[in-house]
User: Which sequence fits this backbone?
């Protein structure tokens, strides 16, 4: 029988997060301090008590290097969504540590945590979670305003982001006037509003048809090329395959960890100041993959 | 077929009828086309290649003595090599299924480990297909082909999930730590 021993938590000497504004559109920032963008150490989340205790997440160790796109897959109930919530500070671990950009966050107070989430984490949810009385542009402006940006700066940023996600022409539309795929693109733009250290996406294509899924994956691929750290939970193998790395969860633990960014892929060529639209390696059939699917017979 | 038959002989020597029964059980309705003759043709070829030898069965409880086939050292090597090699991205469902069954019966490899390895292999292929698909217009000829390839790989990956569940459960029963 297992028992949960709460860990004695050291107090961080750091009083607050880095308040300095992050420059420029996403991905153009120089490499952050060395070390992973996200780190989990012995991360454990237990629900229930006594006989009915469930280890939703059970001792997960995970490093997500800056600039990596990581997909977390696994059957429903394997703990992948809980893991994402712990990583994003939406839920607190029963045991273990979460580090975001070199700072330990699991023991922060509510206010500090909320502040950190606002500034350093962008969330994308399956059901979009847009404010339905606000226009697309207003939805995207909101996080910047909450983080203390001037209305003008927030508006400018929202304009840039909506352009980036291909919705410049829909800025004044209400979510109800947008398709599911468009709503999710607004949600992605909103997640990027404060140029977050990491974007966390929970089943981002779960409600979308294949064409809209394609659009979101293209967008993620642009983020990837631009060096945005991204962690997404998905049960869709095709969505997972668009990531640099896939981990599979089983019963709250990491069962497998696969790199997909081998030969010719995933290499970060610095920030070249390009458009972020390049699909580097997209057409180069490296290694044995696609070519091996062909069966040439005379 | 040769590899599967060899693998089924790993644990103990067996005769053609028994091999056919075991294959039929693993294949279900797909095995209906499998006639006894095919097994013997395969066994004869394996014998010629020096991978199996015929032995006389000890006196059976009843019925006639039957030809029993056993692996040679070369046959064991060949089976081990087959288990270790990846199935390749083109391997079809039946082929890989039989490999899992053979692995489970022979104890030569852990079926769950084979599933994991295959998942990684297919995920890498899917990653390439998906990346290429994103770079092409969905309605272009190349885009359509890539869509088809990606969907097939996805289907194979979903099937592997089912394989993993089933073989993990069996391993749990076997190991007594379910």
Assistant:
């Amino acid at each position: 029988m297992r028992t949960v021993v709460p860990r004695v938590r050291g107090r961080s000497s750091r009083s607050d997060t880095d308040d300095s504004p992050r420059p420029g559109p996403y991905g153009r920032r120089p490499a952050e301090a060395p070390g992973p963008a996200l780190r989990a150490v012995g991360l454990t989340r237990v629900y229930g008590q006594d006989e009915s205790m469930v280890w939703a997440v059970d001792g997960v160790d995970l490093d997500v290097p800056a600039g990596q796109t990581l997909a977390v897959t696994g059957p429903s109930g394997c703990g992948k969504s809980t893991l994402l919530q712990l990583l994003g500070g939406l839920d607190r671990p029963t045991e273990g540590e979460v580090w975001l950009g070199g700072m330990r966050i699991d023991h922060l107070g509510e206010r500090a945590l909320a502040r950190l989430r606002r500034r350093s984490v962008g969330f994308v949810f399956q059901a979009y979670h847009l404010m339905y009385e606000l226009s697309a542009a207003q939805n995207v402006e909101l996080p910047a305003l909450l983080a203390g940006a001037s209305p003008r700066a927030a508006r400018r940023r929202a304009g840039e982001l909506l352009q980036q996600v291909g919705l410049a022409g829909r800025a004044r539309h209400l979510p109800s006037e947008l398709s599911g795929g468009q709503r999710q693109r607004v949600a992605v733009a909103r997640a990027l509003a404060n140029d977050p250290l990491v974007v966390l996406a929970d089943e981002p294509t779960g409600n979308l048809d294949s064409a809209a899924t394609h659009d979101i994956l293209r967008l993620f691929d642009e983020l990837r090329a631009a060096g945005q750290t991204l962690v997404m939970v998905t049960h869709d193998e095709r969505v997972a395959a668009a990531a640099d790395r896939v981990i599979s969860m089983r019963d709250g633990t990491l069962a497998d960890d696969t790199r997909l960014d081998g030969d010719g892929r995933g290499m970060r060529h610095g920030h070249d100041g390009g458009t972020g639209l390049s699909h580097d390696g997209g057409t180069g059939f490296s290694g044995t993959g696609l070519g091996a699917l062909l069966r040439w017979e005379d | 077929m040769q590899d599967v038959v060899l693998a089924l002989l790993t644990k103990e020597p067996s005769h053609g009828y028994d091999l056919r029964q075991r294959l039929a059980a693993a294949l279900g309705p797909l095995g209906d086309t499998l006639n006894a003759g095919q097994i013997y043709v395969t066994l004869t070829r394996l014998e010629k290649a020096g991978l199996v030898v015929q032995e006389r069965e000890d006196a059976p409880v009843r019925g006639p003595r039957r030809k029993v086939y056993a692996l040679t050292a070369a046959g064991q090597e060949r089976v081990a090599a087959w288990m270790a090699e990846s199935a390749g991205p083109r391997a079809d469902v039946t082929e890989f299924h039989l490999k899992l069954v053979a692995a489970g019966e022979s104890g030569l490899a852990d079926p769950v480990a084979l599933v994991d390895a295959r998942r990684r292999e297919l995920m890498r292929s899917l990653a390439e297909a998906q990346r290429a698909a994103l770079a092409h217009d969905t309605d272009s000829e190349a885009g359509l082909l890539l869509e088809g390839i990606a969907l097939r790989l996805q289907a194979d990956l979903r099937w592997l999930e089912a394989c993993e569940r089933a073989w993990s459960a069996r391993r749990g029963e076997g190991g007594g730590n379910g």
Summary: The radius of gyration of chain B is 20 Å. The first helix of chain B runs from residue 2 to 8.
